[in-house]
């Protein structure tokens, strides 16, 4: 049982470390098409507005926010998924 737990902890650690890096890199390749800005790299984009106030960010900042959001959300989903499978497997093998 302890070998199973250590194996799943290693897998969970690997997923926790590698998935955000891979998602950030993959999203970096695709986000140029998703967040397109007219006017070149110095162009700004209105991200939020409330009344007469508005929040403008540069295109590179918006792209970084999108990449970070995808990396964090995807790594959270992958880590929770692996943790659920690990707990189910450990419980299944401990009751044999």
Tell me about this structure.
With 96 residues, this protein is an alpha+beta fold. Helix content is 72%, strand content 14%. Strands 1-2 form a two-stranded antiparallel ribbon. Helix 1 packs antiparallel against helix 2. The longest helix has 36 residues, at 59-94. The radius of gyration is 20 Å and the shape is elongated. The mean pLDDT is 85.
Explain the layout of strands and helices.
Layout: H1 2-34, E1 44-50, E2 53-58, H2 59-94
Antiparallel strand pairs: 1-2
Summarize the structure.
By secondary structure, this protein is α+β, with helices and mostly antiparallel strands. The protein is built from 2 helices and 2 strands; from the N terminus they run H-E-E-H.
What is the β-strand count?
Answer: 2
Order of helices and strands: HEEH
Cα Rg: 20 Å
Strand order of the largest sheet: 1-2
Give the overall form: elongated
Q: Biggest sheet, in brief? A: 2 strands, antiparallel
Uncertain segments are none
Mean pLDDT: 85
DSSP summary: helix tally: 2
The share of residues in helices is over 70%
């Amino acid at each position: 049982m302890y070998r199973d737990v250590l194996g799943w902890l290693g897998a969970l650690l690997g997923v926790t470390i590698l998935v955000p890096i891979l998602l950030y890199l993959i999203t970096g390749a695709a986000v140029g098409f998703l967040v397109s800005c007219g006017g070149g790299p110095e162009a700004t984009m209105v991200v939020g507005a409330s009344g007469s106030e508005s929040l403008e960010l540069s295109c590179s900042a918006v792209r970084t926010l999108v990449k970070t959001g995808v990396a964090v959300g995807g790594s959270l989903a992958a880590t929770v998924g692996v943790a659920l499978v690990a707990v189910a497997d450990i419980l299944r093998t401990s009751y044999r």
